[in-house]
Prior knowledge:
- The structure holds two protein chains of two kinds.
- Chain A is built from three helices and no strands.
- Chain A is mostly helical.
- The longest helix of chain A is centred in the N-terminal third of the chain and has 20 residues, at about 5-20.
- The model of chain A has no long low-confidence stretch (mean pLDDT about 85).
- Chain B is of the alpha+beta class.
- Helices cover about 65% and strands about 10% of the residues of chain B.
- In chain B, a hairpin with a 2-residue loop joins strand 9 and strand 10 (about 370).
- In chain B, helix 16 (about 570-575) crosses helix 17 (about 580-615).
- The model of chain B has no long low-confidence stretch (mean pLDDT about 85).
- The interface between A and B is large, with 37 and 49 residues.
Amino acid sequence: MDADQAQVVEVIDGLLRALIDAVPASERPALEERTRVIGSLLVQGGAFSVEGFISGEVARALAD
Amino acid sequence: MHWRIESKARDGLKVIREIPDIPTCLIEGRNGVGKTVAVQLLELVSGEIPDDFRRRPALWSSLGKRLGATSVLVDGLRNGQRLNLTFTPAEWDTEVPTSVGEWLGTAEIDGKPASVKDCSDLVAVTRIAGNEDLEETLKRRVDTLSVYLDSAARTLRDRGDLIDGAFSEIGADLERADPVELAADEARLAQLEEELARAEGDAAEADRRLHRLLKASETKRHLDAADQATEEMLARRDELVAEVKRLASDLASKETLAEAAEKALAAEGDAQKKLADAEKLLRHRNSRLANLEREVDNLARRLGVRADQERLAVAVAACEDRIRELAGEHRELDAMGVVRDLIDEIVAPLEGAKGLAGEQVLIRNDGLDLTVAETLAGLGRRRSEILDRPQPAQLRELATELAAVKQRGDQLREASAKLEQHSQQHERVEQAATEAEQAAEQAEQASEAAVRSREANQAVGGAQVALSDAHRELAEVQEQIGSAGLASREDADADLRQSLAELGLGADDLASAEGTARTAVAEADRKVSDIVASVTAVRRRLTTRRTDIDLLIERLQASQRYGWLVTATPELADDLAAPDRRYEAFGALRHAVMGASARAQDAASFLTGLVGTAQEFFTERGSNANERELKQSLRPAFEAVLAHRLRETLNSAAIRDAIFDGSEIVGIEPGTRQLTLRDQHGAESKRPMEAFSTGERAFAFTQARIADLEVSAKPNRLLVLDEFGAFVAADRLPDLADFLANDAARVADQVVVILPLHVNYEAEIGETRGALHERYAERLKQITDRGYCAVPLE
């Protein structure tokens, strides 16, 4: 992902966080979870890997 | 910056070929000469996808087909750098890209190969459309946001597909190995086992009830069917019980008497036995005495001597004398016998010595040496000679007589011994007779007590027999009564009453209740069977599920491709090895893997839903739901977020001052195109957007947008003002030139203003003089040459 894509990630992240603050409280947990997943998947550059993403999801599932 | 475009475009696509190195450059030309295409190519070089292509994707496809290997060359960059980028549209995707990449073409910087990114990092090209009013600015912001959302959604989908593909090999196995289903089955098994315990209890209770019912029915039947024979049996049973009791008592009494008689008998000793023993001994001794007498008489007769010790002793002495005489005579006659005897005595030791000393000299006599072996051999020959020599007749006669006398002597001694034994035996017989006489006297006294004891024992025996008979008959009667199932009428009535109380029934209800009870038992048994079948099925399923999970874990651990999964976290590896945490940990792993792709796709769909809402922001919302309709509860929130971002766009100081007289935009109603303003006094008012898109406000808005441009960090910045015909029509170019000269330098190193041809230079040049004439002449020349002119904006 290049600089332009980095800007995309920044814009999306800002948009979703503003949305979390704007939605009803009942919708917040699901939206926060989606935002987390989107952030994990939209890592920049060559940092995304299936192993890295899944390991993070496994750690989260075990903690839950 | 000096821009040159070497066009290889075809199929009617035109591109202007030069933008000179003029800080504020005016490009004026005919429609279709390629001004807009040139700006689009410059935006691509700077790493931007022009908005025109996002709004109208067909333009992108058309450009790709017609552009050819067109090149953009830029020199006059900072630090004297030169840039050359040749487009490779043959390799472009027909879909409008979300961002510029190396696929754009091949590049050089200062004559050396470089990446497209390196080139885009050098130059920033910003295009502002002069005909974009307030509403269009807001729409463009929304469009840009939509593009970002769409780009992110596509990335999420791609990564979701990547995740899906990564686990395609084990997807089916993961689907099947479900710890949640395992836990559900375990819970179900526990529940079924509880149900089974209850059902078995119910079945047992139903069975007991039926059994109780049957027993009560049986009792009632027996009571109903009781007859005289039964009554007699019961009466006879009672009699026998009394008889047994009496006989047992009688037996006890008789046993007591017998015991007393035996004690009395015992006190008198066992006289009879003693008498018998004494008589037996006397008989034995008399018999022995008689035998001895016979033996003595026979011997005496045979010897011709009276059975008398004195006479026998005389005869024995005579024999001994005769034996001596005969032995002497025999010795005198049998010298050879002496020699023979001597030889016999010598031979035995010589035989024993022959083995070791056979060759040793034994006899030496005047030169004659005889060895042991020779001596032995000689003695043997001599003995044979002696034995072969016949004995004299007299000698034989002497030997015979001697043997006879010896024999007589032995017999006489035997007879004497016998006679002595006879005498002793006689004494023993007398003793035995005396003892027998004494025993007879005692026996006579004991016979009366014995009679009494005997009679008492006989009485006991009789009582025992009578009692045994009575017991036997009683047992037979009891057995008959037991088979009839009726201990007694009273007992039976009591049993029946108790059973009916336990059953909660009346006696008349027994018959009908039995059917109900049997049905209840059958149903209870069926229920137990059903539950057992369910338990078996669930257990089988549990085993299968556990096996599926265990096998999959083993497979993952051994897999080169997926081994990392089971060690994704240190805790996971430990938990998978712990029997009490294994399946829960696997569930976490499974959830993470199986849900990953779905979560990615869900997130992509969510962002796509936001795109739909964004694109409908300025449209009237109808009753039909868009296919990308965002969840209703989120729509108002997203619209509020969108409106907030748009308000931020409008609430910049430059725009507020230039357009809104310093008022703050506190509300945007996209559907009605209304803005809510709040002035410095706090008063709010609503105004339509179009009110700010005409006249002076339109110009001011455009200037404000330029002033609001963010300063790029790139070293070389080009600002293109396109579609500024309205400024020309309103004769605002001088104002724009002043503005660009004063304010644009902050955001751009070079400004290019693009206008359509708005002057008929050929027709009007004749009306001009001086500097204006020169300007017109230059522009006319360029326009004639290449269809457009590029001159300083003055």
